[in-house]
Specification:
This protein is 48% helix and 0% strand. It starts with 34 loop residues before the first helix and ends in a 10-residue tail after the last helix. Belongs to the class-I aminoacyl-tRNA synthetase family.
């Protein structure tokens, strides 16, 4: 005889599949999806889904999850703090402490106004995950910020300034 093991699909509260074509596949391998991008998938979970995902994807106790859920209803709740807990738990489980540290460093560094410094390993790991462009040294040398912005596609024309 043949035996099999099946699992239900992971669905969002609106009935759509989690982690498929809508968001891009969520790979467990860091070579297919960096720990940073993996972490970001879970940070983006809507409030309506985060408690269900904590129950299905983490080893947190039901008591701790209930406390997090209660905290979400309080006026002093910090938005996305439960999503951060989910992202940290799942990223650490899949990518280990180092993968989580890499994801947190990258997340902090990419926040507006951040003064965080990244090592080359982290920069290399997230380079394909964030918007970027390449310009040669000659293209950058003696170019104004406006010229560089147009070349990078940040502005449609110089007149847009």
């Amino acid at each position: 005889g043949a035996y099999g093991l099946t699992f239900p699909l992971l669905l969002r509260s609106d009935g759509t599949k989690f982690g498929k074509s809508e968001d891009g596949a969520i790979w467990l391998s860091a070579s297919m999806l960096s720990p940073y991008k993996f972490y970001q998938h879970f940070i983006g979970i809507p409030d309506a889904d985060v408690i269900v995902f904590l129950k299905k994807l983490t080893f947190l106790s039901l008591e701790e999850i209930s406390e997090l859920e209660e905290g979400m209803r309080k006026p002093e709740y910090v938005p996305n703090s439960v999503q951060r807990k989910l992202a940290e738990e799942v990223t650490c489980f899949v990518h280990g402490e180092e993968g989580l540290k890499e994801a947190l460093r990258a997340t902090e560094a990419l926040a507006p106004g951040s003064k965080t410094h990244l090592d080359w390993k982290t920069i290399d790991a997230i380079a394909n995950e964030v918007p970027s462009f390449l310009l040669s040294y000659d293209e950058v040398l003696n170019s104004s910020l406006v010229d560089l912005s147009v070349k990078a596609g940040l502005l449609p024309t110089k007149a847009a300034v």
